[in-house]
Amino acid sequence: MENSVFSADYQKGLTAYHSGDYATALREWEPLAEQGLAAAQSNLGVMYKNGQGVPQDYKTAVNWFRLAAEQGNANAQYNLGYMYSKEKGVPQNDKTAVEWYRLAAEEGKAKAQYNLGVMYDKGLGVPQDYKTAVKWYRLAAEQGFAGAQKKLKEIKTHLVSKGIDKCLYEEVVKITGPESKKIVEKYCRTKLEKKSLDWLLQYAD
User: Is the CA virtual torsion 166, 171, 176, 181 positive or negative?
Assistant: First the structure.
């Protein structure tokens, strides 16, 4: 929900929304949205998306999000990306989702940074790229976004496992049998777990 300070009417709508009085919020915001106030447009999008004070209507939500997003509203850009990602009110389109997530992420919205990281992590709408995923996860994690912090740990675990085979290949001369292989593998895991995520990204390439 948009929290920016605008007019008294906007603030009255915000207070009403947070108290669960969706009818008043709708009454205050609708005229403002129709006058082109991006924050009000974004908030109406949220209400239609969630069915708060109005029947749930994804297409109407998308229309409001788009109007606000095209004015540069980061919340609306994030939500529009989400709608494209989840096929809510629009055909599913990961590439378009990435475009809107990126705009919101560049404005510093942590959820958008996280979701953009996920898109790069999984190769959705963009080529899979762990380095770029880590970049966006880090930005979200620095804002305290718990999901991004968890993802960074998961990627490091994945890269450690991925790097063990390469390490074993490099240390193959030390392997003389099954037991020695286990010892070298343990050495490799310990060595890799101590390395930074950036080092692992380079090593695992």
Answer: negative
